[in-house]
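Researcher: Re-running this chain for the archive, since the previous output was lost when a drive failed. Same request as before.
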Amino acid sequence: MSVLASRKEDYARYDISHFSDETLQNVMKNIQNQMKEAVQQGESLTSEYVVQLSQQLDAYVLIAQIRKMRCVN
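Model: Regenerated structure tokens:
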């Protein structure tokens, strides 16, 4: 149950309801590029910075999935 609650909190924390799908996709690509750049500069995949970016990306992916599910229903 706590996982579900934390995911709802993620959705609330990243209030992007005003973002278009294209903007959302661009934000996710930007985060991916930041992760790639960090790794190329020697950051480990478990470094705090890369983990933080990964968590941000996870939240945005979840939001995109929720949007898609709402459109299907």
